[in-house]
Amino acid sequence: MSILTNGLLRTTASLAYAARGPVRLPVLMYHRILAQPDPLQPSVPDAALADLQFKLLSELFRVVPMEAAIDELHTGRLKPRTLCITFDDGYRDNHDVALPLLERHKLTATFFVASGFLGTGRMFNDTVLEAVRRLPDGPLDLADWGIEPLMLGDAASRVRAISVITRDIKHNEPHQRQAATEALAALAACPLPEDVMMTPEQVVTMARRGMSIGGHTVNHPILSTVDDDTARREIVSNRDALRDLTGITPMTFAYPNGKPGADYNARHAAIVREAGYSSAVSTAYGVGDRQTDRYEYPRVALSKTTYAKVFLQLMRAASYVRHGST
User: Fold this and answer.
1) How many Å apart are CA 189 and CA 135, to the nearest integer?
2) Model pLDDT for residues 14-68, shown as the tens digit of each residue
3) Which end of the chain has less Cβ packing within 10 Å, N or C?
C-alpha cells in the first residue's frame, strides 16, 4: 500500500476517533491466535489472519499498553488514533504464535492471565472443546446436565455441540462446572491435551519482552456466581501471583466472561479498584472516551479477514461509545 494511501487512512482514523466529541480509545480483544485454522474454532483467528490485522494496526494506529493509554485518556493527553491490543486467559499460543507476530510488527499488547491454569491447567471451555473433538460420531446424551440431545458427526455438528454445552454450563458454580467437564472428558476416546495454557516461564518471557501482564482471577469464575469473599480472593490472589511471577504488580484487570450486569457488577468493580488496579475491561462491545468508567472499559473483537474490511470495522466501531453499565 502506498505512502499516500496510508497517510489518507491514518487521517481518516484520526478523524473518526476524535470527531463529534472527546478523543476515543479502541481496545481490541483477542483470546487465541492459532498456528493453523481449526474447523472446531471457526471464529478464532489463525496466524495468517492475525498477521494481516497486526500489519494494519502497525501502519495506521499508535498502539500502546492498556495502562498507559487509560492514563493518557483520563488526563487529557491521549492522541487520536491510539489503540490497545488485549488477550484474555493466558493461552500458550499467546506466547508461541501471537508474541512473534506482535514483535514482527513492533506492537505491544496486554495479556490478562488466569494464574491458576498456568502450566498443565485447562479451562472448562477447552475441556469441552477437546473432549467433543475426540468423541465418536453418534448421539450424545447429556440429559443429566439439563442439556438437549446432541448428535455428533461432521465439524458443524461438533461446533454446535461445543457451543450448546459451553453455554449451558458456563454459569454453573465452579465446582459443578468442573464436575460436568470432567464427566465429559471421561467419555473421550483418548487423553486431552495438557499444554493449552502458558507456563509460568512463558509469562515471564512475555513480560521481559515488553508485553504487559494483567489480572484475570485465579480460576476464571464468573464473578456473579460466587460470593464476595470468593471473588475478592480470586482477584487479589491472582494479582499477587502475577506480581510474584513477573516482579511487576499488574495494573489492569479483565472480568472473566465480562458481560456487564450479568457476569460482574458494581461490587466486583469496587473489589478490583480496592485491589489496586487502575482500570478494568469488560467484553461489552464499543469504545470509550474520557467519560467512560475506567473500571468498565469496553472492547472490540476484530472479525474481518481483509485489510479494507478490518479498517472499515474499526471505523464503524468508533461510533459505539460506551460509558459504563454496572
Assistant:
1) 6
2) 888 886 568 999 999 999 999 999 999 999 999 999 999 999 999 999 999 999 9
3) N
Three cell numbers, residue 37: 485454522
What backbone torsions phi and psi does residue 229 show, to the nearest 5 degrees?
-65, -40
Phi-psi region of 5 (alpha: psi -120 to 50; beta: other; left: phi over 0): alpha
What is the longest distance spanned by two Cα atoms in the chain? 62
Write down the residue that cell numbers 456473579 correspond to. Answer: 224
Does the predicted model carry a pTM greater than 0.90?
yes
Of 73, 106, 101, the C-alpha closest to 87 is 101
β-strands 82-89, 110-113 pairing: parallel
Residue with the three cell numbers 439439563: 146
| Residue 237 identity (one-letter amino acid) | S
List of domains in the chain? 3-117+199-317 (3.20.20.370), 124-186 (no CATH)
Q: Give Cα separations from 207 to 118, 234, 237 (angstroms).
A: 15, 22, 19
